[in-house]
Design brief:
four-stranded parallel sheet; globular; 359 residues; 2 domains; Rossmann fold; alpha/beta; 18% strand; five-stranded parallel sheet
Length: 359
């Protein structure tokens, strides 16, 4: 407990805030690309501590939010097939697709299981040998190594009824897409701690070298985030751009080599559709050919319905940092955590949910 208190010490917080104010001279936009950072920033009131010239923007840091309707519709189609058990993480259940949600189909009687880990899906496959278990795998580099490991384990156990519908996405290509779009001026990135535990610092280097935008990999406690902001402001004011690691107690420059090796063994890169951002080249993962027998999209002949979205929902703009949730006409009225219209109000890492909960 004392260890946690060190990262929430009021005196240290005050000194860092003072240091940021003294250091900053120009208008600065900093974007966090992790939903857990967004939650911590709001929970601890860090936006209110910033000087007027520093603005914190929420980016595409929620894996549930950036998953497109097309993938949700495909998962629902799979769930309706005879002999199938669809397994997924709990925060995907209530995300609206084009005409329904996975939770609605569960209520309608289809066999949908909410799980905590890909190992739970493997257990379902072992316990239900006459059923086809399909794991709807979403998430960034944080969760994809565990999914890769589950495929290797399924092969070792010779489970021929375990499949993965892969909707994994990669963070660095999305950061580049935001810079290329030039919709908003991003002066620096607060890089995600969880993702960076896996990939390390190297995958962000092109952002500093090619675009001149500094990045700081930051932890999730108040002092972590404020120190990360201080480090970014220091780079920006000195007109430098490099990749720094504030979260050194967990993040190594080279990342987690075992996790990266597992990812490389099982997955290959592919183009991927991001809600609000469109198709981003090499921003997703697909199973390599030697593991295609586990690929649900290849095994099932999925019939794709016409993808629809809710007119007026600003989830796409919120994900890109162009709009804030309170600018949406549905926010807090017809769209609430108990009755969400868009994915940003469903997940605890979604900007709309966070705004609603903490603002």
């Amino acid at each position: 407990m004392d260890y946690i208190r060190e990262f929430r010490d009021k005196k240290s917080l005050g000194e860092l805030v003072k240091g940021i104010k003294n250091l900053s001279r120009r208008r600065i936009n900093l974007m966090e690309v992790c939903g857990t950072h967004t939650m911590a920033i709001f929970k601890y009131g860090l936006r209110k501590l910033m000087p007027d010239n520093i603005k914190l923007l929420s980016g595409p840091g929620c894996p549930v939010c950036v998953t497109g309707n097309e993938d949700i519709d495909k998962a629902i189609w799979i769930a309706k097939q005879k002999g199938v058990i669809l397994a997924t993480f709990g925060d995907m259940l209530r995300v609206p697709g084009s005409t329904s949600s996975i939770y609605n189909e569960k209520v309608n009687g289809y066999d949908v299981r909410f799980i905590y880990s890909p190992l739970d899906a493997l257990r379902l496959a072992e316990d239900n040998p006459k059923k086809k278990i399909v794991f709807f795998a979403i998430g960034f580099e944080t969760t994809s190594p565990a999914v890769a490991s589950s495929i290797l384990e399924a092969k070792r156990r010779k489970l021929n009824n375990y499949f993965v519908f892969c909707a994994h996405k990669l963070i660095p290509p999305a950061m580049e897409a935001l810079l290329q779009a030039k919709e908003i001026n991003i002066d620096g990135f607060i890089c995600p701690g969880h993702v960076s535990v896996i990939i390390g610092a190297k995958p962000y280097e092109f952002i500093a070298k090619r675009y001149g935008v500094p990045c700081v990999i930051t932890g999730f406690e108040p002092l972590d985030i404020l120190q990360g902001i201080f480090m970014l402001v220091r780079q920006i004011e000195s007109k430098q751009a490099s990749i720094e690691i504030q979260y050194r107690r967990l993040v190594k420059y080279e990342g987690n080599l075992l996790a990266l090796k597992t990812l490389e063994e099982v997955f290959d890169r592919t183009d991927s559709y991001w809600r609000g951002m469109g198709v981003i080249v090499d921003s997703g993962l697909k199973l390599r050919k030697k593991y295609e027998s586990f690929d649900a999209e290849g095994v099932f002949k999925i019939k794709q319905e016409i993808t629809k979205s809710i007119p007026g929902c600003l989830c796409g703009e919120v994900i890109r940092g162009v709009k804030e949730p309170i600018e949406c006409k549905y926010f807090g009225k017809v769209c609430t955590p108990s009755s969400p219209l868009g994915p940003c109000m469903v997940s605890i890492e979604g900007a709309c949910f966070i705004y609603y909960t903490y603002s």
